[in-house]
Design brief:
The chain is of the alpha+beta class. It contains 4 helices and 13 strands.
Length: 230
């Protein structure tokens, strides 16, 4: 899965990497992007552009119902065409979720957070889908979900799922392909040699913490590593 990520670069770098305009009044770098926050995504509504959307897809049949709904922060790529909650958005409303790192927690005596990033620590995009609707208070909300796939060998000892990371050459295709089933081949784990990981401070557990110290590598102790499920 993907329950927390990092987008901490300057807006200029996002503009250059994705060929979009990023304005200071809509973007704030963050080392701790979390569900329910309004975060930067890239869509193809007309020209490619950046938009702020709430992380956690609101199912279209509950939009405006006034009932509390658990946000769907992740979507399983294996069933993306089968489940109504995701399939319509997958066919019609896809987005890129830019990041320069994401976090996952390894279960043990203590849950240990790990940061995952590309080998050169550069920006990448996660495959996303989005939905427009009304929230519990009838406010208009655009919300998004990150697609996940089976973990690669680097990820597997921490978690059995990981976000779908797109190759730069496939990003335009992800946004513009009209026949969604043609995109299934993109929904696969990133190649292991492109990814790196290391343990970070448990301060990342608290969404109120948001500073550069969250991505510094920390030491772990052998006793922390024994799985609670073994």
């Amino acid at each position: 899965m993907c329950g927390r990520f990092q987008l901490s670069v300057k807006g200029k770098l996002i503009s250059e990497r994705f060929n979009v305009e990023v304005f200071d009044n809509m973007y704030k770098p963050s080392y701790n992007c979390a569900p329910t926050q309004n975060l930067l995504v890239i869509t193809k509504n007309g020209p490619m552009k950046v938009e702020l959307m709430r992380w956690g897809l609101i199912p279209f049949w509950t939009a405006g119902s006034g009932k509390p709904v658990a946000p769907l922060i992740n979507s399983r790529s294996e069933t993306i065409l089968e489940k109504p909650v995701f399939s319509d958005a997958f066919r019609k409303r896809r987005c890129l979720v830019p990041a320069n790192g994401f976090y996952e927690w390894k279960k043990g005596i203590n849950k240990i957070p790990y940061r995952f990033h590309l080998e050169d620590d550069s920006l990448f995009s996660m495959a996303g889908i989005w939905q427009e609707g009304k929230g519990p208070d009838q406010e208009q909300i655009c919300s998004f979900s990150i697609l996940t796939t089976a973990a690669n060998d680097l990820m597997r000892d921490v978690h059995n799922r990981m976000p779908v990371i797109l190759e730069p050459k496939d990003e335009e295709r992800w946004l513009t392909e009209k026949d969604a089933p043609n995109l299934i081949d993109l929904l696969k784990p990133v190649e292991i040699f492109k990814l790196r990981k290391y343990p970070v401070s448990s301060r990342v557990n608290n969404t109120r913490n948001d500073d550069e110290s969250l991505i510094k590598q920390v030491d772990i102790f052998p006793g922390d590593l024994f799985s609670l499920t073994e």
